[in-house]
Structure formats: structure tokens, C-alpha cells
Description:
With 241 residues, this protein is an all-alpha fold. The protein contains 14 helices and no strands. It has helices at 6-20, 23-29, 38-52, 61-70, 81-92, 98-111, 114-122, 134-141, 146-153, 158-162, 165-177, 194-209, 216-223, 228-238. Helix 1 (6-20) packs antiparallel against helix 5. The chain is elongated and about 65 Å long.
Amino acid sequence: MYTYDIHALNQLLGSIIQDNTPPDVFAWLMKQGNSNDTAAFNAAFVMMPRKTGKAVISVKPEQITQLNVTRPNLSVEGWTADRLGRVFLLTLADTTDKNRYVKVVENLFLAGEMNELVALYSALPLLAYPDCWVMRCAEGIRSNIANVLEAIMYHNPYPAEQLSTDAWNQLVMKAIFTEKHLELIVGLHERNNAELARMLLDHARERGAAGRDVTRELWNLAGQFEGAGVINNLKQEYQLN
């Protein structure tokens, strides 16, 4: 059901929320996890900013260390209080009935506005039944909303763990097209592959033909599968850096 210790994760996220919200807000949040009351659960998810505020949270060094042990490669640094509150709420949901649980979360995706989608995609590595969210993740990669893309791409271990090679390659290419910080993508080098290298070099040729440069990280990725001679010839042909 879960790929990590959900109880340890709940305690840790709860402690971070307690450090960043008044006591009455945390007390309210702890009463909102009954996902079998769908209307109340959805209402709590939507009204989260009004309860927690939208300030960027502070995370203690020991909490960062503990999170990396409990859920490696996930980071909540830079998150707002409402984003963390929504993700925490999702971890409180009843997962006993798989179909019901998936339906509750899917309905949140279907009705979500931008900030709600950011929280939902941020929660992908923490949701139960991880294989159920692969299509949802692939759909998110097709989004043109920068914050949604960054929630999927940055410090999020779910894509590297669950996406097929084709979907993973689309994620990396979308990150390049939208000029994201590739170094923040979890598993960038571990999931690198020959087909992606070919796609990257095709992209470099198109950019070069248009007189435009490419990110240096493209050469690092392509270089793992293509010879230095191929890359150097391409750079010279199109005068790329």
C-alpha cells in the first residue's frame, strides 16, 4: 500500500506543521482526515489556505535529515503552509478501501485549481497505491502551468520511481523545453537512457539550426550514450557551446 513508513512520515510532517502554524490550526487539521466523509474531506482540502495561511514554512535541519531517511529524495523546503497542510491531509486519508481512496483523490485532481494541483502532484510520492497515479503524473507533465510542472519535477521522487521510459523521457524533454532546473529532477542520471540521448541530440540539432543554444546539461546526458566525437561534431556544425 505504502512504499515507506507512513506513521513515521505522519509524525514528521505533523511536527513541521506544528512548528509553522498556531496550535488551534493543527488541532483543526488533525480532525479533518476522515476521507469517508467525502464532502468534509474535500472542504478541508479547499479551505486549507484560510486555516494555515500561505507563508513559506521553515524546516529544521534535523527534520530535513529525518525526511530524507523516511522518504528519500523528497524535500518540503520552500513549500507554503497550505501546500504542506494539504499533503499532510492526504496522508491522513483512509486507505482501507482502495477503490474509494483512489476515487477521493482523483476527484480532487479533477476539481483542483492551480495551488491545489501543486499540492496534489507534490503528494504523489506519499500517496498509497503508487501505481495508480502513473497516468495522472504523465498528464501533469503535459501541463503548461509552471508551478504544476515544478511540483512534479523538483525534489519529487515519484516520476523516477514509477514512470515508464517513454513518460520519463517526455518529462526530461518538457523540462528542457520549459527551461527548468534539470539538476533538481530526482533520478535524472539514473533514469538516463539511449533513446533520451537520441532525442536530446535531435533537439540540439533543431536549436542549432535555428541559431539557438542548448543547456550544458544536455551534453552531459547525451554523452553517457553518444561518443564524444558525435557530440563535438554536432557542436562544431551548429556552433553550439
